[in-house]
Amino acid sequence: MLIAVDAVGGDHFPERPVKGAIEAINENSELQILLIGPEDLIRKELDLSEYHSNRIHILHAPEIIGMTESPATAVKQKRNSSINIGLSAHKQGSCSAFVSAGNTGALLAASMFLLGKLDGVIRPTIAATFPTIKGISLLVDAGANLELKPAMYLQFAKMCSIFSREILEIKDPTVGLLNIGEEEEKGLDIHKEVFQLLSDLPNFYGNIEGRDILFGKTDIYLTDGFTGNIVLKFGESIPEVLIYMLKKTMSAESIDEQTQKLIFDVIAKTMNSFNYEHVGGIPFLGVNGLSLVGHGGSSVTAIKNMILNAVRCVEFEINDKIVQSLKN
Question: What is the H or E stretch that residue 283 is in?
C-alpha cells in the first residue's frame, strides 16, 4: 500500500514528516511512502537517516502552503504545492491516501475541490479527537461548518460512529448532542429538531452538557463548528495552564527540583491517555477519498500514527461503509 505524506506540512517540516514516515514503514512491512514536497529538501532530510530506500519515494512539489496563509487563496495560487499535488495524485489513484499536518483550511479546501464529496453527503466535516478520563472521544464539527442543518448533524453522527468503531476500535460508540441541559426540550429550535432526528439512532445517548465532556459520558460529541472549535481550543489550553499553575505553586512552596520532577512524572503518566499522538490525525469525513489531517505541531510519533491510521481507513473500507450508512 502506498500512502502519500506531505513532507512540508506542519510547524516542523521536513524533519518530523520524514522521520514519521520512516517509523511508519518500520512498523508496517507492507507499507510504502510517497513523500511530497521540494525534492532537494526531502533528500537532504532523508540523508540524515537510515531507511528502506526501496519503500520511500519522492514526488516533487516546489511550492509550500504556510500555516497562516489564506486557505482559498493559497490553494488557487499555489497549484504546485505539496497539498495540491498530493491530493491530485490520490485522485488519480497513484496512492491510497494523503496525510498532512499542514494548513487545515487549505487541506480541507483542496480536498473538497479535488476529491469532491461521497455519494449522499451534504457537507464533509472535521472531527477532532478529544481526551477524556475514559480515553479518546470525537468532537464534531470542530470548525469546518460553523452552522449546520439538522440533517447534517445526523450524517455527522453516522460518519463518526463508523470511524470510532472501525479506526478507534470503540465497540459500541455512543453519540451525545452538546446542549445547555440534558432534558429533551432544552436548547434552540434546531437542537430540539436534531434531538428528534438523532433519536432514531440506536447509539444516541441524548443531550450532553459541557461538564460531561472530560468525563467521557459519550464517545462522540456532536455540535456545530462554531461551538466545537471553541470547545476544542479551550481543551487544548488545559495542559499548558495546568503546568503553569503547578510550576507557580511549587515555586511558591519552595519544592526542591527532585520532588518537582517526581510530580511532573506522575502527571505525565496520568495524562498519557489524553495524548493526541496515539491517534495522530483523522480524515475529513465525507470526502470522496482519504485526506487525513494532523495537528500543526505533530510529533514524529503523531505523524507515524496518522499514516498508520490512513492504512486502517483503506483496509477497513471506511468510505464504503459511510456511503452505505447514509442510505439507511
Answer: strand 281-283
Pair 181, 209: CB distance under 8 Å: yes
Residues 91, 95, 99, 103: is their CA dihedral positive or negative?
A: negative
Q: Taking the CA of residue 110 as centre, how many other CA atoms within 13 Å lie in the half-sphere pointing to its CB? A: 35
Residue 252 CA to residue 231 CA, distance in Å, equals 31
Three cell numbers at 219?
464517545
| Beta-strand pair 220-222/175-178 | parallel
Q: Is 100 helix (H, G, I), strand (E, B) or coil?
A: strand
Dihedral angle at the C-alpha atoms of 40, 50, 314, 312, nearest 10 degrees?
Answer: -140
User: Helix, strand, coil proportions of the chain in percent (round to 5)?
Assistant: 45, 15, 35
Give the three cell numbers for residue 269: 503518566
The rounded distance, in Å, linking the Cα atoms of 152 and 200 is 15
Query: CB within 8 A of 112, min separation 6: which ones?
Result: 124, 287
pLDDT 10s digits, 292-321: 999 999 999 999 999 999 999 999 999 999
Q: Identity (one letter) of the amino acid at 320?
A: D
The per-residue pLDDT for range 209-237, each reduced to its tens digit, is: 999 999 999 999 999 999 999 999 998 88
Q: Which amino acid is at 202?
A: P
What's the Cα-to-Cα distance from 263 to each of 189, 244, 267, 273, 302, rounded to whole Å? 48, 13, 6, 17, 25
Checking phi first, is residue 247 left (phi over 0); if not, alpha (psi -120 to 50) or beta? alpha
